[in-house]
Specification:
Elements: E1 4-7, E2 10-13, E3 18-24, E4 32-39, E5 46-51, E6 58-60, E7 68-73, E8 78-83, E9 92-100, E10 116-117, E11 121-126
Parallel strand pairs: 2-11
Antiparallel strand pairs: 1-3, 3-8, 4-5, 4-9, 5-6, 7-8, 9-10, 9-11
């Protein structure tokens, strides 16, 4: 079992930056691939970024590529999402997700492939 708690959301002007953090419980966090998703009002949850359990592979949605960076620190049981050049269309609730995997270097972008979710953190980008 893994419990995830996001933090770092807030209100920022367009062009600004935020760093989201996801704190994970459990001693085997290094066995879990993780990802970030977001959901805007009236829209479906969408993939943002993913990172493999051993931090050697990352994958991004086209809409955030070049602006967002996912990273993790397994020693601290933390996952991060650095968001730069934010746009109003990035406004959403952002969720951290994790799933156990035996595959090194594997990333997952389908929300149905994740077993554990945080409660979400609101990001609002004003124009």
């Amino acid at each position: 079992q893994v419990q995830l708690v996001e933090s770092g959301g807030g209100l920022v002007q367009a062009g600004g930056s935020l760093r989201l953090s996801c704190a994970a419980s459990g001693r085997t966090f290094s066995s879990y691939a993780t990802g970030w998703f977001r959901q805007a009002p009236g829209k479906e949850r969408e993939f943002v970024a993913a990172i493999s359990k051993n931090d050697i592979s990352t994958y991004y949605a086209d809409s955030v590529k070049g602006r967002f960076t996912i990273s993790r620190d397994n020693a601290k049981n933390m996952v991060y999402l650095q968001m730069n050049s934010l746009k109003p269309e990035d406004t959403a609730v952002y969720y951290c997700a994790a799933r156990y995997t035996s595959a090194y270097g594997r990333t997952y972008y389908n929300p149905e492939e994740y077993d554990f979710w945080g409660q979400g953190t609101q990001v609002t980008v004003s124009s």
